[in-house]
Specification:
7 helices, single chain, mainly alpha, 2 domains
Length: 137
Amino acid sequence: MLTPGNVNDATAFGQALDGIRVPRSGPGRPRTTPLRVLGDKAYSSRAIRHLLRRRGIAATIPERRDQVGNRRRRGRSGGRPPVFDKEIYRDRNVVERCFARLKQFRAIATRFDKLADRYRAGVVLASLILWLREPAR
């Protein structure tokens, strides 16, 4: 999903979650609910955690420092900390490395294109180029 540069990622999270389509290996409809969501601290909000909990999706999102402080300041009424698995969170570096490789393309890093369709086409082309450069495993 492509959003304007001045829009917070957390505000578009629900729309991005609705747009997920994971194809099945055999026949059948694509899955629309992931098993787990890995996010950085920008996605650590009560609304996002509530949305994921309501849909039955496990969340691996670290808590922001200010949220930890507020929870501890409130004492017992602050609740318990959300579950966070450091081992699973390490898999998130694959996404960050992909973004870093995509930003090696100048047109993507600076977004020269005014129209969203053209920018998306540039991202797709850059992704294909990176995929074709990858040695076969």
